[in-house]
Amino acid sequence: MKKLSMASATTIVSLTMFNCAWAAQQQTIDPSDPTTIATWMDVGAESQTVHDGAGNTGSVNAVRGEMNFALGAEHLILTEFGYAKSEGVDSKKSGMLDTRLRYFNLPYQNDNNDDFIQAAGWSLDVTLPTGDYKSQLGTGMYTVAIGGMTKHVINDSLMILPNISYVYSKAGSALEKDLIASGQGAGLTHHGLRADLFVSYKFTDAMWGMAVPSYTKGLQGAADAANIKLYLGYMFSGSDGIKLEYQKNFTKEQSIWKRVTQGMEDYVRFTYTHYF
């Protein structure tokens, strides 16, 4: 009985110490800051509007998961995967979405908000064509993006984070075969420079919003592209929150910006987040 009491006391003390350390970590988490280094999980549901390029419009309804692993105070690894069902484009089909892997390194961090730059980092982002592009469940392309980001705190509520990256895409085997068969071998690879501007605003300690306009300059004949992302998030506890996200995509044809007519035009996503 005495041993059980000692074991129970030890367990209680250990859990108390863990909870205190865990709580201290949670106080530093800022979901409105894209440079946050933490371990968390996202689970979300989304609906996409898609086009097949031949005038047909359909939808893709998906569930998506994301895991972010913090390795120390400077390194973050992300894995993202999903499963979806398409309707109205190439008949109905279910399957995996494209898979995303990301490494983020934040070597410079400065807590002095009076300085011009509060943080600077770089990332390597890889997308694998695990989704069926014919059913609009993926792009059919391997994509690699490498870029750098800086954080500038304007005041206690507002921060801006510009990001510049080089993007390289190569057709996967299935898409490559179809492009060659249709005489579009020039579309096997794409190069581009992408600029993103993250504008984040805290309405309260629990509620935040973000707008992210992006522009990609196509190189070597690739088309220019642009999109806008809007976020609204709310943390209802120290470790749990929800987020609503919307994205609209545009393409440039003959110097005129138009809505996308092949691939994904827009999506709405609702996500639950848990920080560990």
SSE arrangement:
Elements: H1 2-27, E1 40-52, E2 57-71, E3 75-87, E4 93-96, E5 99-109, E6 119-128, E7 141-153, E8 158-171, H2 173-181, E9 189-202, E10 207-219, E11 225-235, E12 240-253, E13 256-259, E14 262-275
Antiparallel strand pairs: 1-2, 1-14, 2-3, 3-4, 3-5, 5-6, 6-7, 7-8, 8-9, 9-10, 10-11, 11-12, 12-13, 12-14
Based on CA atoms alone, the radius of gyration comes out at 22 Å
Count helical runs: 2
Tell me the strand percentage band. over 45%
| Unreliable spans | 1-7, 9-27
| CATH topology descriptor | Lipocalin
Major sheet characteristics: 12 strands, antiparallel, barrel
Distance between the termini: 34 Å
CATH superfamily, by name, is Autotransporter beta-domain
Under the CATH scheme, which class? Mainly Beta
Shape estimate: globular
- Quantity of strands, as a count: 14
The arrangement of helices and strands along the chain is HEEEEEEEEHEEEEEE
Average pLDDT reading? 87
The oligomeric status of these chains comes to single chain
CATH architecture: Beta Barrel
Count of the separate structural domains:
1
Helix percent reads: 10-25%
